[in-house]
Amino acid sequence: MSNFVSAEQLSALQSSGAPVRVIDVRWRLDRPDGHAEYLGGHIPGAVYVPLATELATHGEASEGRHPLPSTRTLQDAARRWGVRRGDLVIAYDDAKGLSASRAWWLLRQAGVEVRVLDGGLPAWTAAGLPLATDDVQVDPGDVVLSEIGADAISIDEAAAFPERGILLDVRAPERYRGEHEPLDPVAGHIPGAVNVPMAAHLDAEGRILDMHTLQATFAKVGVTEGTSVAAYCGSGITAAHTALVLDEVGIAAKVFPGSWSQWSNTPGRPVATGDQPA
Questions:
Q1: What is the rounded CA–CA span in Å between residue 182 and residue 146?
Q2: What's the domain count of the chain?
């Protein structure tokens, strides 16, 4: 079964009365709090999810910008969203699935059935479906989550990963090459990592590309079924989208949640620049 649902499929699920909980995970680097945009128009019944406090936690700079939340924090959040045992959770955003994928990655580890809305909110509005402007409050859910973290790797594991598999840097090429770094203290990439930008998996409308194209993109860097693969980005958000896409084509992937924000804030970590891994 696909990790994605179309706007039409989501609308049909809501109309059917199926146990579906829709979450709005609007977040961007330039707009970490998307609540105002949520109130300006969201999918009817969707609960707003603040990524920074419910899908991440805060720590030292050496932990990265978006460390994993505890399982208890995530469970409390999911219950606030009204998630009950057996519910299907569908996450969306307005930024090509980046932040929605973080919710998918965490909830999937926790044993929740979860999907991402293909194309996000723009796909919903393009389909002519209605928006709501209320601040949705729901009765608390009773979901019980499994322990999360098994799909994450540490900074030391990320350093060693190219020796046994393929470490993907999914940031924009100029950040990978070290030509531009808008957020972190050092520019470049983890030695041995190969660059496959997240944008390579989406069309102009932010919808997922066809299976053959996705497989071909990964195969170019040696990632095929059975390959040991992990992904990182700036702070562990975009990398979850690559894990989502890899899972869609049948390839299991780990994520380095600390990503470049942790690596570049940890003294002594080597840095590579240019368009080659080493």
A1: 36
A2: 2
Q: Which domain holds residue 259?
A: 155-263
Residue 107: give its domain's CATH number: 3.40.250.10
Q: Which residues are catalytic?
A: 233
d(C-alpha 45, C-alpha 158), whole Å: 39
- Residue 87 in contact with residue 53, Cβ under 8 Å? no
pLDDT along the chain (278 residues), means of 10: 97 96 95 96 98 93 94 98 98 97 98 98 98 98 98 98 98 97 96 98 97 98 97 97 98 98 97 96
- Tell me: do 160 and 117 sit in the same domain: no
Answer yes or no: pTM beyond 0.85. yes
122 and 8, same domain (yes or no)? yes
Strand partners, 22: 90
Q: Are 258 and 64 in contact (CB under 8 A)?
A: yes
